Predict the 3D structure of the following.
Amino acid sequence: MIKIIKNAKVYTPNYIGINDVALVGDKISSIGNDLTIPENNTVNIKVIDGEGKILVPGFIDSHVHILGGGGEGGFKTRTPEIKLTDITTGGVTTVIGCLGTDGITRNMLSLLAKARSLEEEGITAFIYSGSYRVPVVTITGDIAKDIMAIDKVIGAGEIAISDHRSSQPTVDEIKKLAADARVSGILAGKAGIINIHVGDGKGMISILKDIVESTEIPYSQFLPTHMNRNCRLFEEAIKYAKSGGNVDFTTSSDPLFWEGGEIKASEGLKKCFESGVPEERITLSSDGQGSLPMFNEKKEYIGLGVGKVTSLYSEVRDAVMLENVPLDKALKTITSNPASILKLKGKGKIQAGYDADLVLLDEGNLTIDTVIAKGQIMISAKEIKVYGTFEK
């Protein structure tokens, strides 16, 4: 089927004015003014009215516990697997799945299978090999082989540093992991990224800075996340990004669960831009379906929340509506920026030849109206059209 979205205000994520966008199958075919349908047309064409709407690229969530996460409070605190509509209702059309604290009872083959199941249900999914621990858990027994041989593996993560739940990795261990991921990524045409969980520890991201300063491994090899978990780490994130690094802010968060005065992602975006951080070095991710454990001053577990993928766009919307961040800048943190950093071909932009991953927003309040993933309408007029296999 051919779909034509008519008369929408198009953000590619850069604003290009009111345009029509044609989709053929799972790709964007063309963008232009007043795209017409031939009178002798015999092809099935669906016209979507975009008047009063803003058309943006489908959102990319680069840190999602698609198998569930948690367990820090015992087996009953293991969060459940994510469902398709947990993702699509947040406008997300591409997810990167990861393991977290528990890389023992949750394993890489299950993570890969879950990613493939989400793809079969209609969205795009990739994964990181590994969990909090170093040495990393893998599918083939070697991180380089995972990246080279398995299409869905784009890097390693989430590797924990500066956290009492980490394996307390040394600089040399992270250095070796980054080197292996980098070379295999180059050979496979992938990012070979290392997704780094940064905890509340005093060391913060000193390991990453040591590696960049003492080796030829560049800043771009790392994507440290949770960089808004407290004020001192957020200030470090600004310095790190201005020095050339990429930083990721978590949107599923609660000040009750993070020590030291967590910075909301929406507020963090505004402060980063005001501080002169280049806009292409900032991403947001949800930590969706992951646990948000709360610990007391003795590092004892005392409570738990669950991350939501829907928080991703919610923080972008707050950045625009409450913090006066320009829409195009805010959108880049969940579209073109993660696509570029993670080397996701055909993702993150509205451009001819790119995947037909699109979101229509109501112009007045920026709420999500329609979600299209790989050309398939998942949500229309705020009504779910496609459910996961076991959701209904």
Summary: The first helix runs from residue 84 to 88. The first strand starts at residue 2 and ends at 11. Confidence is low (pLDDT under 50) at residues 255-260. The two ends are 26 Å apart (CA to CA).
